[in-house]
Specification:
With about 220 residues, this protein is α/β, with parallel strands linked by helices. It has seven helices and eight strands, in the order αββααβββαβαββαα. The protein is globular, with a radius of gyration of 16 Å. It starts with 15 loop residues before the first helix and ends with a helix. The structure holds iron/sulfur cluster. Belongs to the uracil-DNA glycosylase (UDG) superfamily. Type 5 (UDGb) family.
């Protein structure tokens, strides 16, 4: 999308409720990041991971997606095991973790109260997601972490949700700017989902097994 930066400015003013929440936390915790969280990873990735929004004490505190809360522990451990990251994840943005052929972004870049962005906020932040997608024709697989990220991703592309409903472990064939891409679904790797057994480590790894196979297969076809 012409004219839209891939990452919003630190003081992006577009969502008044989120700006007020951000300002409140700048006052309460001045040493936290407290700004729109930029995407993290390879700028020409095969795999794009889409989360919903930064966690208050995770990415909003540290400034890197999925860094500093439980979701990052499971996500980055799994990414390292499947060759989509290397280094050591130490839950801080200056650790040695690097993503390999993968990029992580959030559909909404600012932390929302109670982890719940509103429909208008999702819509307002959507141009940054679309600009990110448009800038990365290398993407062949997208992992949506959670139903809302899945729905938001489809809506951002103006694709019907009914044709590709969220199902944990599913892979949907979609078109991204005229290119075939597979959209994989997983329950969000939150502590709540793992504590309740909705998502086990094995279930999450199984999704990554499918993603790895898809990326490797499409790489060999393009070689
Ligand atoms: S959520 Fe997105 S559009 Fe809204 S204020 Fe934050 S960066 Fe701007």
């Amino acid at each position: 999308m012409a004219g839209v930066a891939l990452d919003p400015a630190r003081d992006c003013p577009l969502c008044p409720r989120l700006v007020a929440f951000r300002e409140e936390h700048r006052r309460l915790s001045p040493d936290w990041f407290n700004a729109p969280v930029p995407s993290f990873g390879d700028k020409a990735p095969s795999l794009l991971i889409v989360g919903l929004a930064p966690g208050l004490r995770g990415a909003n505190r540290t400034g890197r997606p999925f860094t500093g809360d439980y979701a990052g522990d499971l996500l980055y451990e799994t990414m390292i095991d499947f060759g989509f990251a290397r280094g050591v994840y130490e839950a801080r943005p200056d650790d040695s973790l690097e993503l390999v052929d993968a990029l992580i972004t959030n559909a909404v870049r600012c932390v929302p109260p109670e982890n719940k962005p509103t429909g208008p906020e999702i819509k307002t932040c959507r141009p940054f997601l679309i600009a990110t997608l448009d800038a990365m024709p290398s993407v062949r697989a997208v992992l949506a972490l959670g139903r809302i990220a899945h729905d938001t991703f489809l809506t951002a592309l103006s694709l019907p949700r009914a044709k590709s409903p969220f199902v944990h472990g599913a892979g949907h064939d979609i078109q991204l700017s005229g290119r075939p891409v597979k959209l994989f679904d997983s329950y969000h790797c939150s502590r709540y989902n793992t504590n309740t057994g909705r998502l086990t480590r094995e279930m999450f790894r199984s999704v990554f097994t499918s993603i790895r196979a898809h990326v490797d297969e499409t790489s060999s076809l393009r070689a």
